[in-house]
Amino acid sequence: VEELEKIVKRGDSAIAATKAFYVAPDNSSNALK
Predict the structure, then answer these.
(1) How many whole angstroms separate alpha carbon 15 and alpha carbon 27?
(2) Could you read off the pLDDT of 8-20 as tens digits, one per residue?
(3) pTM score over 0.70
(4) Which superkingdom, per the lineage (predicted)?
(5) How far is CA 32 from the centre of its chain?
């Protein structure tokens, strides 16, 4: 849990990336583009 909180505090970019991987790993590549 502590690691997750650190990542969340890192920035919204980290959260967006994590959500992209959890929501749709296949679409993550398209989201980056």
Answers:
(1) 15
(2) 677 777 778 777 7
(3) no
(4) Eukaryota
(5) 11
The yes-or-no verdict on residue 30 having pLDDT over 80 is: no
Cα 11 versus chain centre, distance: 10
Task: State how far the alpha carbon of 23 is from the alpha carbons of 7, 8, 10, 19, 28, in Å.
Answer: 17, 17, 20, 6, 9
Tokens 């992209």 sit at which residue? 20
Per this entry, what is the length of the chain?
33
Domain boundaries, the chain: 2-32
